Amino acid sequence: MRKIPFGPNYDEMLNPEKIDSEIRKEALKALKDSELDPINLFNITWKDDNNNVRKIVLPKELTGVDANIVVMLGKGFPSGSHKVGPAYSTLIEGCVDGDINPGEHTILGPSTGNFGIGVSYICNLMGYEAVVIMPDNMSKERYERIQKYGAKLDLTPGSESDVILTLERTYKLKENPKNRALAQFELFPNYRFHRYVTGNSAVEAVKGIGNGRVACYCSAPGSAGTLAAGDELKKVFPECKIAALEPYECSTLANGGRGQHRIEGIGDKMCTLIHNVLNTDFVVLIKDEETVQGLKVIHDGTEALVELGIERSTAEYMKELFGPSGICNILGAIKMAKYLKLGPDDNVVTIATDSFDRYNSVMENLNERYLEVEGFVLKRWAKDIFLHQQDDYVYDYRRKDHKEKLFNQKEKDWLKFGYTKEYLDSMKSEDFWENEYSKVLYYNKKIKELR
């Protein structure tokens, strides 16, 4: 059996300054010069080379709200998306536990894209064969990136909202004892990475901005891993409200809707196993066409943004920062800032999972569907989508009976995959989530020892 190539533990992913200085230096060099060098495992962090959280505070000439909207940027992670973090965390925990061994097991990665890219990338660095199971109607750039990193594709029918079919396919492939699934929708390393690493990075991200606190955290659940950061934010800032964002066209959590939509990576027609609905205060619906139009505005509408009063350097800088789910999160943050009537001292934090580089085909599709996408159109879209975004389609889920709807959805989704009602009911206690989170300390110690 080959030796396991260990990378960072959770504490080092949150605080890369704790990594040996020579390793950190070599890793940062590899991030620029050698994408497939395994030392890039030590670049799995929200921090830049100065150990500051990568983020942008959006110009208020774009958002139209008094509150500060802080977007944490996933673009700087190895492979170009923060999804590489939970992919690595799930694999390394399996290695520590002795459940996954190089040369013995093939890794399965059920995904709608970014997690699959992360699985492919991490398996390349750590020496595993990988198969990514995903819908057959995603952007071609995602497929190309996965294959570039060496994984095989196993495509299921449908789009990003048909992830249940990828789960069914994964369970079928798991019948082969050599296959091990990095099951982002149900395994808790995803929760642990985002609660510990993303959540505490978000705490740092607002230092020196407004009142230095987080009034609201918004994230669109695909796996609901990123939403777990909200659990830690509520611990640090008890007044923080957590909003789960869904496509208007696939409003499963809000009202059971199960339609198709264009926001890749979210809205998967389910309540995932690792979604802690106890801390979900609001469910907010975002129209998919607005996210694609908004992406067009940010990427191609520099002149329109400058006319709205945004600094040209800022407009240029934003061009490559977001994908459709990032725009979705921004629109949700604007909605919640208006809904909660937040002021200039208040901060709303959200996430840009990836960047524009994997969505050229999405823009090509938009250009084919519209006769006019000239500057005056982009300026109108900028006003309608960002500045004049309404606080509608916000569902309050703070009441116990409303949360019960989410628990019922989770039960409907997961009993058929072999989970018992007793286990699902145990998730109705905060003790369940604190117990899962406490395992960060164990894995911090074991990863360091075994490395």
Describe the structure.
- This protein is α/β, with parallel strands linked by helices and 451 residues long.
- The protein has two domains: 55-78 and 194-396, Rossmann fold (3-Layer(aba) Sandwich), CATH 3.40.50.1100; 84-183, 3-Layer(aba) Sandwich (Rossmann fold).
- 45% of the residues lie in helices and 12% in strands.
- The protein contains 19 helices and eleven strands.
- It has a seven-stranded mixed sheet with strand order 1-2-10-7-8-9-11, sandwiched between helices.
- Helix 5 links the parallel strand 3 (106-110) and strand 4 (129-135).
- Helix 8 (189-205) crosses helix 19 (430-450).
- The chain starts with 9 loop residues before the first helix and ends with a helix.
- The model has no long low-confidence stretch (mean pLDDT 94).
- Keywords: Pyridoxal phosphate.
- InterPro entries: Cys_Synth/Cystath_Beta-Synth (IPR050214), TrpB-like_PALP (IPR001926), TrpB-like_PALP_sf (IPR036052).
- Its cofactor is pyridoxal 5'-phosphate.
- This is Pyridoxal-5'-phosphate-dependent protein subunit beta.
- It comes from Clostridium omnivorum.
Record keyword descriptors for this entry.
Rossmann fold, alpha/beta, 451 residues, four-stranded parallel sheet, 11 strands, 2 domains, single chain, 45% helix, 19 helices, seven-stranded mixed sheet
